[in-house]
Amino acid sequence: MLDINYIRENNTEFDNFMKNRGLKPCSENILKIDEEKRNTQTILENLLSERNNISKNIGELKKDKKDVTNLLDEVEKLKDKINNLKELQKIKEDELNAILHRIPNITSKDTPIGADENDNTEVKKFGDKPNFNFKAKNHHEIGENLNLMNFETASKLSGSRFVVLKGMLAKLERAISQFMLDKQTLENGYTEMNVPFLVKNDSLFGTGQLPKFAEDLFTAGENHWLIPTAEVPLTNLVREQILNENSLPLRVTSYTPCFRSEAGAAGKDTKGMLRQHQFTKVELVSITLPENSDLELERMLNCAESILKDLNIHYRVVNLCTGDIGFAAKKTYDIEVWLPGEDNYREISSCSNCGDFQARRMNTRFKRDKKNIFVHTLNGSGLAVGRTLIAVLENYQTEDGNVKIPDVLKKYLDNKDYLI
After folding, report:
1. Does domain 4-100 match CATH 1.10.287.40?
2. Most buried in the list 125, 136, 146, 163, measured by CB within 10 Å?
3. Rounded to the nearest 10 degrees, what angle do helices 293-311 and 385-395 cross at?
4. pLDDT cut 90: percent of the chain above it
């Protein structure tokens, strides 16, 4: 959530940021409601002060056994006015919050200005595309041909956008997740957490999914939702806390299923495992001091990249533009892995610096020089497990339809050289 003081003091800059995100300028309406709320607050405070003064006079007059009937009538009239103003103040406050809660974060100065993914800026590349002497298959062709990937049965069980993995393919996915966790905890300094897969409204509000993106989520009974990413429970571990400055940064990771309705993706990537209602991911979250968050984003990106480097799979990193960046982010790097079966790059990780945007929603601060200051939060995929499985299948496929096991995964798979 944005600081209302920022909008008051920088309304033109704020409107320009909204334009860059493809949204209508809205500072005029926000400041109008804010002024009405503050004017109401001022009148209310004056009336409360007047009522207190009259009450003191009543007490003194009663001591002198003087008539206070007129003053009591005044207090009663003030009471009605005060109650009406309190109600009006609450209405204006709710009206203002309803707008502020749906406004995205202000993007950083080095976020490219653009309309959509076509305006993202490439930052770097790693490795080379595989050079096959045969026509590369896509992941679902490979999996189905090996009788290890079944979409038809999954559809009978749960509907579209689900899959059943079998035998060695299920083991390969498990091996990938174990490798990721070992890498992020043993080498990259993250602490593993086992978190709930169900969260309440406040947690989703804190990280920015509610109220604006409710249609992208799955509900699970009254005031419970299935997590769309472990970012939600991991970041909310520090909600409504005042942290010790010396305890920062906090770096945590978790391997969880993720659940998304994909409401805004109708008709996109309907084949295969690329866009599913249920998938698994190793998530990275950092809670940092404000002055360190830019460097922490670079560090997090390197930690996510290290997975693909160890797997020796070609990828590129792009800096997302203002029209493609997420709601809570001020700056985001996407890692896009090369999929030879598609002859295309696909996102496999997003690493974002959210600044103090989520911290304000969660009321998470640290103490410095007797002041409470909002922390900065960051999140990233380290990586999406299902998409990493896809990348392994397509980049390590063989002409006979088998899949070579990457060296770093062999110890998790009885040192096998091939999938079958």
Report:
1. yes
2. 163
3. 40
4. 90
